[in-house]
Amino acid sequence: MSRSSFHVKKGDNVEVISGNFRGSSGKILQVLPKKQRVLIEGVRIIKRHLRKSQDNPQGTIAEREGPIHISNVRLIEKTEKKGRGKKETRTKKEKAK
Domains in the chain and their CATH numbers? Predict the structure, then answer.
């Protein structure tokens, strides 16, 4: 099983560098590795008409983000890893106290 790795991951801040949405930026909500696409917060908003139902008696228009190819985005800022943190090292003088 081959596992593909990308230059961006969920939570990273990215900028769109080509296509209709060039110049816009946002946070990655989801990475779709099989299709090599990403969902970016506030970029490529798609409107979907929903028919009448019990949840929506009047019907509604739902807005959501659409996918963009991963090669069209550039990393601006990485998310910080949630690790155990650094161990504190004390000097011999501090240990003696």
Answer: 1-79 (2.30.30.30)
